[in-house]
Amino acid sequence: MNTSKEGRGTKSAGATAKMAKPLLLLSLAVATIGLAPLPIRVAPPSVRHVHLQARSYEYSPALVLVNRGDRVTIELESTDVVHGIFVDGYQLEVKAVPGQPAGLTFIADRPGTFRLRCSVTCGPLHPFMVGRLRVAPDGTFWRAIAMAILALLAGLYLGARTLSRHSSPRPTDTP
Amino acid sequence: MNRVNLLQNRALRALLIPRWPQLGVQLAALAGLGILIAVGLVGSPVGNRNLAIVVVWIAWWALLMLMLVPFFGRLWCSVCPIPLPGEWLQRGAVLGPTASSRGSSGEARAQPRRRGLRWPSRLRNLWLQNATFVGLALTSLAILTQPRTTAWVLIVLVGSAIVVSLVFERRSFCRFLCPVGGVIGLYSQGAPLEVRVVDRDLCTRHIEKTCYTGSDQGYGCPWQVFPATLRTNVSCGTCFECLRTCPYDNVAVNLRPFGEDLFLPGPRRLDETFKALVLLGSVVTYAAVMLGPWGELKAAAAAVGTTAWLVYAGTFLVVTLAIAPGLYWIATSVGRAFSRVRATSAQVLSAFTPALVPLGITAWGAFSVSFLLANLSYLWPALSDPFASGWNLLGAAGVGWSPYASGVAPALQLAILLVGLTWAGAHVRRIADELGGGLRLALPVLAFTLVPTLGLMWLLVG
Amino acid sequence: MAPRRLSREPLARAAVGLALGLPLGLFLIWGAGQLGGAQLLRARTAEAGGWSPDALTARVGETLHLRLTSEDVLHGFAIGQSDQPAIEVPPGEIVDVELTFNRPGRYVFYCTRWCGPNHWRMRGTIEVEGEGATETPPLPAYVALGIDIDAPHPAAVAPSRRPSAERGAAVGVEIPARLLSRESNLGLSPVELWQALRAEPGTRDLADSQVWDLAAWAMRATVTDEMVAEGQTLFAENCAACHGRDGAGEAAAARPTPPATTASHAHSKEPVDFTDPQAMLGASPALLQGKILRGGMGTGMPYWGPIFTEDQMWALVSYLWNFQFEGWL
Question: pTM for this structure?
Answer without folding.
Answer: 0.85
